[in-house]
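Margin note from the TA: students keep mixing up input and output lines. Inputs are the sequences; the output is the structure of the whole complex. Example:
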Amino acid sequence: MKSTAQQLRTEANWPPQEGQIISFRSSTGSETDILQEVRWGLVWRDFILEDGRVIPEHRVSGCPRPQVWRKISEVTDQEREECEERLLSMAGAGLDPRKRDQPFWAELNQYLAYTYLRFKQAGPKAQDSEPG
Amino acid sequence: MSRSGQETEEQEVWRVLSEAGLIEIRLDQFAERIRDVKRIVGIRLHELLDFKTGIQERESAAYSLGTLKRLELKVLANVPKPPDSSEM
């Protein structure tokens, strides 16, 4: 377990910079690769590696806990619509979401998580409570 | 804070998504998870149809439902077929 001082150091340096080597958990165990980009998805951050793989932040070594996630209300309609278009485009191109750590897999994971949270938490709102 | 009184919002979201199997979807469970989310969106859409307001959310929910249906069809179309027992 990390000491408080170690934890603070990790959080101060988080997320890692582009070009840094990061360690992460993959389906085959622990791996390292060069970080190309850190990108926010609809819910969590994805770490894009130089080889094109997409690793969710919670699988990257040193990720502070609890990790920072977006609030559903922060996602704009435009952002959601763009994500839906990308997903349909990738599906239309014949990509298979069952290829772990690939962009389609990563984006579909986040879209399902976001959509679930959005409608599960919504429930009837006060302003909607006028039965038609 | 949520039901436990000590759970932060982030922890609650993590728990909710974990329980729904949506943090890291297993490769063989995409179609099932899409169906689960479709069901949640469908329930909400029915609620919205009972009210006079919320037109924008209703349209958005209907669009999301359509997107999920199309994705489900694509995923199902790509499901690897089990070996044909008659060929064995």
